[in-house]
Design goal:
By secondary structure, the protein is α+β, with helices and mostly antiparallel strands. It has six helices and 25 strands.
Length: 476
């Protein structure tokens, strides 16, 4: 199999690191709030109001930041704009220091006025339904995923390495004992949980997590995404089997872009994804596991018709190439096709229909750019590489994906539910074949959406970070 010639080397990794360091340095500069007040009145007050009360644009002192609450998100929104909503980019009018000063002034006003994040609403409206919003589970620590054993029992993963059980609406006081040790650093930790489609017969539960190894010559442990399956008996993890572990030499010292979601198709395959782990070019290398979608059988064996299984030196579980960091996966209820949402760089989040052996382009093609505004590539297309079925610019930080399959909301049958961390929302996408023909936000500003899932009762369950809770959306 021929691969396109790459004009990018490992220098891209260095540029990405420099970009993150640059943003961190900018955000850490000494701030001048008086200067920020002057600049705010000059550039911001005409839309956001002289007292930040809102006007043509939203209020800045109501505790709601619908395009990302962290300073780094606000910084990028000011510098690069939100053009499709009419907010211009100020990168040519304001220096980084000036933007930083405006943020400092706004944060100071928030503090002086005692602004707090609003409590999660108890109801909301959509085009088709009025929704009730209720807390399903709370007292969690960075929940990451949810799945259901049966109509009365849910499993929730916590990133530090715990599986929690919610039974008959109440969370057990103790987490499941004996689950695998995880590397809880950066974006790593205990990630996805998935219940076997035949759980009632076989009892298997699957976990994905960041697994570490000590490595000679490395200053810190190396890590990679790993999958296991096991059973829960008397609130204890038992009968563990490793079903995917990458070769030790492919583990990396980075602490981001692990993926990972787990889904099953109607033909007995298990799919999961590993992010590029911060090594962008490696997403194009079929001899490495990162930056790819993988397909195996639930026991870890390899399907003979996997597209790379018979290529010498290839990772046999590979199903697709060129995927930056997938954290949303779902199987279409009628076609059985795999759909994913992928964290792009700034301005490059994607929805993709994943087909066997296809190359989804990262980092040879992308619609995004580095977080410091520099160019990753001038290419938007490249021979032999796929275009996204849908994209988000600005990035919403897509995370969590599911097709709605319940009976509570019949008008939403087979629509895609897309979670977003940065924009703190759940979006409903209507598909016509492989095209998105309509987009609607059905939940906003409840928290950073880490996962979204159809429950066995037909309600929609949303895993939130900040606040660390799970909410249930039902028809009013």
């Amino acid at each position: 199999m021929k691969r396109p010639k790459m004009k990018f080397g490992y220098a891209i990794l260095a540029l990405a690191v420099i970009a993150m360091i640059s943003i961190s340095a900018i955000m850490g500069q000494q701030r001048d709030t008086e200067r920020g007040a002057t600049l705010y009145q000059q550039y911001c007050a005409s839309c956001h109001g002289s007292e930040m009360q809102g006007g043509n644009a939203q209020s800045l002192v109501d505790g709601v930041w619908q395009f990302g609450v962290e300073d780094s998100y606000v910084f990028r929104n000011i510098k690069y704009g939100i053009t499709h909503l009419g907010m211009p980019a100020y990168e040519n009018a304001l220096s980084d220091t000036d933007i930083n000063n405006i943020i400092a002034y706004v944060r100071g006003v928030e503090k002086d006025r005692g602004v707090e994040r609003p409590a999660i609403a108890r109801e909301t409206g959509t085009m088709d339904y009025e929704l009730n919003i209720e807390v399903f589970a709370e007292g969690l620590e960075v929940p990451w995923s949810i799945d259901f054993l049966d109509a009365n029992t849910a499993l929730i993963t916590e990133k530090p390495g715990r599986v929690r059980v919610v039974k008959n609406g109440k969370m057990l006081s103790q987490p499941v004992a004996g689950t695998p040790a995880v590397l809880n650093e950066g974006q790593g930790g205990l990630l996805d949980v998935a219940v076997d489609p035949n759980y009632a017969q076989n009892g298997w539960i699957y976990l994905a997590y960041s697994h570490s190894l000590t490595s000679a010559g490395s200053e810190r442990p190396v890590a990679m995404t790993r999958l296991v399956r096991g059973k829960i008996n008397d609130n204890r993890w038992t009968d563990e089997q490793v079903i995917f572990e990458a070769p030790a030499e492919t583990y990396r010292t980075t602490r981001h872009h692990y993926g990972c979601r787990i889904v099953f198709d109607p033909w007995g395959h298990l799919y999961f994804a590993i992010g590029d782990r911060g090594y962008q070019d490696q997403a194009q290398d079929y001899k490495l596991p990162n930056g790819k979608v993988h397909r195996i059988y639930p026991d870890g064996s390899i399907p003979e018709d996997n597209p790379f299984a018979k290529i010498e030196g290839a990772i046999p579980s590979l199903y697709s190439l060129g995927n930056r960091n997938i954290q949303g996966m779902a199987i279409h209820p009628t076609t059985g096709h795999l759909w994913t949402t992928e964290h792009g760089p700034m301005g490059g989040d994607e929805l993709n229909l994943i087909l066997p052996g296809k190359n989804y382009g990262w980092p040879v093609i992308t619609y995004g750019r580095n977080y410091n505004g520099t160019t990753i590539t001038d290419n938007r297309t490249y021979p032999g590489m796929e275009q996204p079925n849908f994209m988000w610019n600005p990035s919403i930080a897509v995370c969590g994906l599911d097709f709605y399959t319940g009976e509570m909301f019949p008008k939403w049958e087979n629509k895609l539910m897309v979670g977003a961390l940065k924009y703190e929302q759940v979006t409903l996408l209507t598909l016509a074949g492989d095209r998105v023909i309509h987009e609607e936000t059905i939940l906003k500003n409840a928290g950073r959406v880490r996962d979204v899932s159809t429950g066995p009762d037909g309600a929609i369950y949303v895993v939130l970070n900040n606040p660390d809770t799970v909410v249930r959306l039902s028809k009013k």
